[in-house]
Design brief:
By secondary structure, this protein is α/β, with parallel strands linked by helices. Helices cover 29% and strands 24% of the residues. The longest helix is centred in the last third of the chain and has 16 residues. The relative contact order is 0.16. About 3% of the residues have low confidence.
């Protein structure tokens, strides 16, 4: 059995999650880890992979010649740059969310991938959670009928425990903003379920993060229309005291109403649909906040399985580069369509 060989760029919280999931997959092998911090500060001693202190050092090595796939889990602002460098080296890439911090940069990644005939996997692992799989099937089956309204509420706590002085979190050029770093997974789910949006009106404010971030916002209300029909609203905040409150999606439709809630949109709270009995769903991986793997971060093994299946010609990509680009495009338009409070 030929194993798919990986490198991981960025050995922070999520990068180590990628390394762990690669190591657990019997058809995968982790060859390299890359980060600018000293190895003894990263907590990666358990991995047998060769360590490199820069992407340039890695790509110039003999190890890089053996690598099939590079998983990019560096700070958001480096995603496009690192992706382009790895594509230039003729590697398939897995990019953590967001794919880039601008539509233009995401387009450059896609163009380069097409030019070198390599795959780009955009990580949106929330799609694998049982409530997400269920609601996708319900909508695609048209049991809900016409979609009238969708409300997405994302209320999380992000305070000085998260925005540490030595972290890239909160830096405009590396983080990108609240919608990119905290809530792009949920915007992806909305796009996956209902398609593109238009007629965007965004209102932002900063309640208590002016000393923690370089962003103009920690909270906002965004109204829009779906191109396929129906009204939408996104309400978000990272000013919730002490711990996360919820990430929820409420759907009002012709034939019923549905609400998925919980901290990570991991629980079906309401399902009242005409002539429909909701099936029992598999349990969702529990989430926590500042501890181990948050909510659906426990779904990363599905991402690695999909990479293996695609490269072994057993499946198609579950979240392709164009979908990753579309999420970046939607967030960019949300930020650009600001109206006065």
């Amino acid at each position: 059995m030929t194993k798919i060989k990986y490198a991981v760029i960025g050995c922070g919280h999520i990068g180590k999650r990628h390394a762990e999931m690669i190591s657990r997959n019997e058809e995968s092998e982790l060859l390299a880890l890359v980060d600018i911090k000293p190895k003894d500060q990263l907590g990666i001693e358990s991995y047998a992979a060769t360590y490199f202190s820069s992407i340039e050092e890695f790509l110039a090595s003999d190890i890089a010649k053996q690598v099939d796939v590079v998983n990019i889990a560096s700070p958001n602002g480096f995603h496009a740059t690192h992706a382009l460098a790895c594509l230039e080296a003729k590697k398939h890439i897995v990019i953590e969310k967001p794919m880039a911090l601008s539509k233009q940069d995401a387009e450059m990644v896609i163009y380069k991938a097409l030019h070198v005939h390599k795959h780009v996997f955009a990580v949106m692992q929330n799609r694998y959670s049982p409530p997400s799989v269920w609601i996708k099937e319900l909508i695609d089956s048209n049991k809900l009928g016409k979609i009238f309204m969708v409300q997405l509420n994302c209320y999380w706590n992000r305070d000085d425990r998260y925005y540490k002085k030595d972290s890239w979190h909160g830096k405009k050029d590396l983080d990108g903003g609240t919608l990119f770093t905290q809530f792009s997974h949920f915007i992806d789910l909305m796009y996956w379920l209902f398609g593109d949006i238009q007629q965007i009106q965004s209102k932002f404010t900063n309640f208590n993060h002016a000393h923690l971030t370089e962003f103009i916002e920690d909270s906002g209300v965004i109204n829009f229309e779906f191109v396929n029909g129906g009204l939408g609203c996104l309400n978000f905040s990272t000013s919730i005291w002490d711990k996360n409150l919820e990430s929820s999606m409420t759907i009002i439709a012709e034939n019923g109403s549905v609400k998925i809630g919980g901290q990570y949109m991991d629980k079906v709270e309401v399902c009242h649909v005409k002539d429909y009995v909701m099936p029992d769903l598999a349990p969702t991986n529990p989430g926590n906040d500042y501890g181990a793997y948050k909510g659906s971060a426990a779904n990363h093994h599905y991402v690695i399985e999909n990479v293996v299946d695609v490269l072994k010609n057993r499946a198609t990509i579950t979240t392709n580069a164009l979908e990753g680009l579309k999420v970046v495009d939607i967030i960019e338009r949300m930020y650009n369509q600001q109206v006065p409070l």
